[in-house]
């Protein structure tokens, strides 16, 4: 069995070091280094179709509480374990801090239940790391880890007005004399009951609690959310302010399991992370147009630039009526419908284009091999779905020749490069390619010799392109023809926007 290289956690190195060197972590090994977590990380970080960080988790032992019916997630699990690193990574991956299970229990709810177990006299707590029951010091460390997890969830704006049994979170914290958590809960809007102060016996404790109340105001907005990139800054000063470069040492978003530095960054692909208000998480943009021709990319950028300019004016006119940005995938769907109606692309290709969040185009070694293979599999599956509908009178082979792509995202079945031939590859017969450029394919030596006089003028030149499907060529031509018109419309729109801005600025 080959050894799997486990990836590092998607967390800043200083943050990891700060957590691991804390005394409360002594004797505790985070799940963030487990093989299963590596698999989850790979699935959630893949750009093409990432797995949701909020998927329910089922464990074989029903006694753990993670059954199919419970609908608990990894965030619930790491919260109960007091696993600071694993929980922080899941939040960074976009896990919802307030997601409730089937019993309406959030991760913060479960944390306080675990803290209550530690603080309840007579309850023995088992240490999985040591295979033994915890002593007093071990319990203190566990409580601190759980309180640390609670702090992270609260600072991620988890709801603090929840009840654990008949007790509020602040009542429980007062019972345990956990002053740090008490102060944090008050700061984030937790409202104590008139009877809460009775949880303290000494006058000094009552005074300390009263002093904390003076500086808290339930009507005051919560403190800003801490950015889940764990830079230590709030969202508005970090990823919410501007896009940030994706860390070089993190797992690449193409799904290759390599680091970004050794994968797509090496190929010149720029990955940017930015806070998304709609989903309330950091999203990374893997340059979703990387497999679209330059002409089409320019057209999309022009459209999006125009839309952003228009949105700024609309926000001044009526901020409540501004819709979210038009997704490039929606533009892709409209483009597919338009080209199909004009008979410019193959119906099977249009079917896949309407349902995929990408368009495969051959770009050689400039894009991730892993990503190209992922695209090939997902795209060809959509073409198979089209074929299985049985609405197209063509044979399977004919449809596959027109719509399926290979590992290079060009045609799955190449056509002979000799102009007088026109033969196609098949599953049983693959053509040989030019040994020099590896971009032109021939059914045999005779055709290759016949084509050399023409091919040698473009072989390995800057203008030489890899084989394309007819539909891919049609998209390229359509995009190139539309650029000039789009630019002209954009100039007119910008002039109109300028007049609108002057009007808006008038008293």
Automatic annotation (TrEMBL):
InterPro entries in UniProt: Ankyrin_rpt-contain_sf (IPR036770), Znf_MYND (IPR002893)
Residue ranges occupied by any MYND-type domain in the UniProt entry: 418-459
Pfam families to which the protein is assigned, alphabetical: zf-MYND
Keywords per UniProt: Metal-binding, Zinc, Zinc-finger
Keyword Zinc: yes
PROSITE patterns to which the protein is assigned, alphabetical: ZF_MYND_2
A molecular function GO annotation: zinc ion binding
Keyword Zinc: yes
Name of this chain's protein: MYND-type domain-containing protein
Species the sequence originates in: Piloderma croceum (strain F 1598)
């Amino acid at each position: 069995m080959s050894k799997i290289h486990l990836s590092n956690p998607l967390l800043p190195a200083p943050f990891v070091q700060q957590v691991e060197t804390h005394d409360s972590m002594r004797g505790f090994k985070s799940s963030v280094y487990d093989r299963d977590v590596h698999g989850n990380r790979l699935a959630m970080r893949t750009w093409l179709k990432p797995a949701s960080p909020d998927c329910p988790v089922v464990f074989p032992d029903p006694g753990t509480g993670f059954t199919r019916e419970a609908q608990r997630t990894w965030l619930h699990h790491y919260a109960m374990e007091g696993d600071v690193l694993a929980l922080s990574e899941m939040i960074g991956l976009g896990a919802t801090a307030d997601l409730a299970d089937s019993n309406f229990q959030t991760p913060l709810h479960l944390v306080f239940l675990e803290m209550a177990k530690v603080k309840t006299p007579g309850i023995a707590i088992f240490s999985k790391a040591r295979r033994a029951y915890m002593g007093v010091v071990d319990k203190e460390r566990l409580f601190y880890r759980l309180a640390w997890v609670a702090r992270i969830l609260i600072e991620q704006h988890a709801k603090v007005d929840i009840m654990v049994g008949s007790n509020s979170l602040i009542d429980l914290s007062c019972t345990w004399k956990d002053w740090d958590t008490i102060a944090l809960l008050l700061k984030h809007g937790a409202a104590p009951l008139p009877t809460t102060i009775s949880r303290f016996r000494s006058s000094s404790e009552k005074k300390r609690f009263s002093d904390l109340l003076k500086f808290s105001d339930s009507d005051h907005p919560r403190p800003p959310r801490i950015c889940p990139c764990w830079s230590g800054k709030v969202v508005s000063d970090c990823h919410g302010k501007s896009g940030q470069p994706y860390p070089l040492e993190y797992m690449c978003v193409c799904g290759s399991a390599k680091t970004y530095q050794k994968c797509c960054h090496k190929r010149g692909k720029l990955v940017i992370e930015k806070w998304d208000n709609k989903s309330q998480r950091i999203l990374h943009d893997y340059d979703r147009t990387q497999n679209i021709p330059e002409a089409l990319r320019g057209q999309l950028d022009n459209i999006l630039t125009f839309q952003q300019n228009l949105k700024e004016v609309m926000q001044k006119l009526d901020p409540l009526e501004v819709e979210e940005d038009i997704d490039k995938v929606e533009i892709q769907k409209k483009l597919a419908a338009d080209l199909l109606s004009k008979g410019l692309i193959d119906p099977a290709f249009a079917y896949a284009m309407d349902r995929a969040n990408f368009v495969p185009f051959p770009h050689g070694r400039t894009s991730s091999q892993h990503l190209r293979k992922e695209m090939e599999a997902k795209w060809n599956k959509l073409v198979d779905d089209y074929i299985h509908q049985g609405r197209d009178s063509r044979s399977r082979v004919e449809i596959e020749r027109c719509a399926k792509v290979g590992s290079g995202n060009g045609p799955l079945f190449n056509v002979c490069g000799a102009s007088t031939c026109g033969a196609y590859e098949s599953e049983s017969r693959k053509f040989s390619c030019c040994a020099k450029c590896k971009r032109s394919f021939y059914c045999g030596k005779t055709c290759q010799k016949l084509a050399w006089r023409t091919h040698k003028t473009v072989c390995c030149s800057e203008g030489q392109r890899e084989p394309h499907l007819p539909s891919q060529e049609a998209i390229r031509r359509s995009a190139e023809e539309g650029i000039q018109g789009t630019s002209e419309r954009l100039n007119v729109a910008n002039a109109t926007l300028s007049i609108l801005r002057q009007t808006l600025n008038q008293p």
